[in-house]
Amino acid sequence: MRRRRTAAWAASAVITTFALTGTLAGSAAAEPGTTSGSATAAQARSEVVATATGPVTHEENDRVPKGSLWTQHYFPSSDGSGVELHADVLRPADLPADAKTPVILSVGPYFSHAGETAPAGWDRVGPSARFQDFIDGARLMERGYTFVMVDLRGFGGSTGCLDFLGPGEQADIKAAVEWAASRPWSTGKVGMYGKSYDANTGLAANTLKLKPLRAIVSQEPTWNRYNYLYSNGVSRSNVTSTPRSYYSIATMAPLADDSDHYKANAGYEKNHPECESDNLTNTQNPDPKSPFWRARDFASRAAGSQTPLFVTSGFIEDNTKPEEMQKYLANHQGPQRGWIGQWEHVRGNETNASGRLKMGRAGWFDEVMRFYDQYLRGIGPSVTDPAFSLEDSLGHWRAQPTWPVTNDSYKVRLAPGQYVDDGGKAQKAALSMTAPESQGWDIEYASEVGSLTTDSEDVTW
User: Fold this and answer.
1) Are 115 and 122 in contact (CB under 8 A)?
2) 60/39 Cα distance (integer angstroms)
3) What distance in Å separates the CA atoms of residue 227 and residue 174, rounded to the nearest whole number?
4) Distance separating alpha carbons of residues 303 and 327, to the nearest angstrom
5) Which of 136, 137, 139, 171 is closest to 152 using CA atoms?
6) Which end of the chain has fewer surrounding CB within 10 Å, N or C?
7) Looking at 376-443, which runs of residues are DSSP E strands?
8) β-sheet bridge partners, residue 420
9) Which residues contact residue 105 at a Cβ distance below 8 angstroms, ignoring those fewer than 6 apart?
10) What does the alpha-carbon distance between residue 262 and residue 156 come to, in Å, rounded to a whole number?
11) Cα(328)–Cα(226) distance, integer angstroms
12) Tens digits of residue pLDDT in 183-218
């Protein structure tokens, strides 16, 4: 359904912009030295930029996903700091404005209108395309979900200094979840979705134990933020480049057609030099027990958390490494789901140049939406998905009820004789034995202390 704006609506939108910013939107007025034709073009472009009360359709602006209505909003963070957060909201276009839907929320540094990590060359303002694959692949609008993207402090259209997932950004996450739950078009049930940094915000949100947060999908996160820059006090190669990169993202210039409100917020970091200095110095502490890193130790802080969690983690990750994943999941007490295996920093649906899935497993969006439907809508899944799906080093998949497996046993066939566990000597002896292939003997060493006598019977050890 396409919504046409009337002249009266356009006038009210101008008044709203003036009330918020104290100035008229610059994109709607001719700049010095421009012709009337270029002024008309600028005004036409400004008419396809969403406001809180003026939704924009795909037909009006092709950066808006098909089947959705785009609006923009501002609200305060939850720590009383005065930080103002910016959100882009995508609602199903065929629903009434007051129709209540569950909300899927992404919070992170990559939702600037100009681009994710650098200017993307867009010729008009629009919502970030970071998770366009999810919106389209999962048919979010068709399924009746609202998708919300919130800029962390210092990024996109939000004010404040970037905080590397510290207390400030955690306050932003809390505010975003509670804001999304409190909207008149929300059922009050919120799920989170992300990959990498905006997957980390999901893990952080879980530790905050927020009542409206009912489900989290977190692809390739860091489980303890310290491990991204250090390993047991030793700095990694990205210890200085990563903070600089995020400051570069935070100071990315807005688009010419962004509103004055958005532009003013986007310039916050450049107008506050302490943002850069704090970002570059605070992250250089190699002590994992320092207050700075304890506040970002989500693996420890997950103790007693209950939010249903669906995670992915690659064993050969060289970016957001899976260190302390086991600790986080052991501390988390809610329902757990996971895809774990032999891949790098990729999404569940991502493919290579030949179209082959990089995780090697089909059905990512279907399983994710069964997860969301169950916990955000109360709809029981039509199929039973494994709690954990694991890919081994040969590319074979298996299902497990937990990860890691806490209890297991193996049957082995041993040659006749007596075996005594005396430490390393027994292991070396077992490995040096050569059994005739005709006997089909399999020998596997177990580390438990004890002895065993066998007459070539199958033994469970």
Assistant:
1) yes
2) 19
3) 23
4) 9
5) 171
6) N
7) 388-391, 397-400, 411-413, 417-420
8) 451
9) 147, 148, 149, 150, 176, 177, 180, 190, 191, 192, 193
10) 8
11) 14
12) 999 999 999 999 999 999 999 999 999 999 999 999
Q: Which two tokens stand for residue 151?
A: 């800029």
Alpha-carbon torsion (15, 17, 23, 27), positive or negative? negative
Q: Which tokens sit at 455?
A: 């007459």
Do residues 309 and 332 touch, judged by C-beta distance below 8 A? yes
Amino acid found at 394: L
Task: Name the pairing type of β-strands 56-57 and 68-76.
Answer: antiparallel
Q: Are 88 and 128 in contact (CB under 8 A)?
A: yes
Which residue is listed with tokens 């081994």? 392
- 245: its two tokens: 């990169």
For 155-175, how does the pLDDT look when each residue is reduced to its tens digit (9 = 90+)? 999 999 999 999 999 999 999
Query: Is the Cβ–Cβ distance between 164 and 76 less than 8 Å?
Result: no
Rounded-to-integer distance, Cα 302 and Cα 295, Å = 12
Q: Which helix (H) or strand (E) holds 91?
A: strand 84-92
With a cut of 50, list the residues of the chain below it in pLDDT. Answer: 1-39, 42, 434-461
- CB within 8 A of 2, min separation 6: which ones? 57, 59, 60, 93
Asked if 221 contacts 199 with a C-beta cutoff of 8 angstroms, the reply is: yes
- The encoded tokens of residue 153 equal 């402090």
